[in-house]
Specification:
Helix content is about 35%, strand content about 15%. The chain has about 100 residues and is of the alpha+beta class. A two-stranded antiparallel sheet has the order 1-2. GO terms for molecular function: calcium ion binding.
Amino acid sequence: MSSATQPTDEDPDEGIRDLVDLVLKRLDMDHDGRVTYPDFQSAVQQDAMLLEILGPCFPEEQVAVAFLSTFQEIQIPNSICFIRPNNPAVMTKTG
């Protein structure tokens, strides 16, 4: 029998309990055994990465760069070319 399939004396939920205890210790700022919104807000203000303790919420760097690039200043030309519907000639308007 391999070591991976041998039964152990450890409780399978022990790792989960340890993780929950760690999260509670990090988020329960007033040590009352509860995580309230002010506790959470204060903990996250001290360490923004605590947002990810409950699951991923920050985008990958490439996604963030692509998103932020949509808000960069767009250079609008001084003249705009357009075609009039009743006159196919291209007209230029300068402004």
